[in-house]
Amino acid sequence: MLAGCSAGGSNNTAFVSGDGTTTVLPIDQRGEPLELSGVTLTGEDLSVSEFLGQNVVINVWASWCAPCRQEAPELKAFDIENPDVQLLGINTRDNDPAARAFEEFFGITYPSIIDPDGSKQLVFRDSLPMSAIPTTIVLDKSGRPSARILGAVTRSLLVQVVDEVNNG
């Protein structure tokens, strides 16, 4: 007998969870500002260019990802404690009802762009490519990809990485 489960509607939910490896790019190695836009889980159009002048923390997540559930309370706390930083999710390889239920269960209020096929992640391929879910990318205040964390994050790690991005 063979049994399995998936997020529904997609058979591509296999993932590799990161080990917490953190990469911070020196200022002179940061590329062009990121061009990322899409429709959020609430149906609104959103672009990261709306947040120029402040750091943006982009977290790639899925409702079926155990490490994503582990880090959700940390991301929520970081969002509340750091109003000067914009948090943005990219919900990948998921279905909208499951993603909305995840956000409701964890009390997530920051926006998440829908990325059902993983194509939104391709904007990072030339700077800080993703190899795990969850992955968190920090943009500097100019909108340039500046740091990447592979795996679940904590709010203290996010504070440290954002500080390093701004001072380094």
UniProtKB/TrEMBL annotation:
Question: Is Disulfide bond among this UniProt entry's keywords?
Answer: yes
Return the PROSITE patterns for the record.
THIOREDOXIN_1, THIOREDOXIN_2
Q: What is its main location?
A: other
**Record keywords:** Cytochrome c-type biogenesis, Disulfide bond, Redox-active center
Keyword Disulfide bond carried by entry: yes
Ranges for the Thioredoxin domain?
25-167
Picking any one GO biological process from the record gives: cytochrome complex assembly
Q: Which Pfam families match?
A: Redoxin
Q: Which GO terms describe its cellular component?
A: cell envelope
Q: Where in the cell is it found?
A: Cell envelope
Example GO molecular function term?
oxidoreductase activity
How is this protein named in the record?
Unannotated protein
Question: Which taxonomic lineage does the organism of this UniProt entry have?
Answer: unclassified sequences, metagenomes, ecological metagenomes
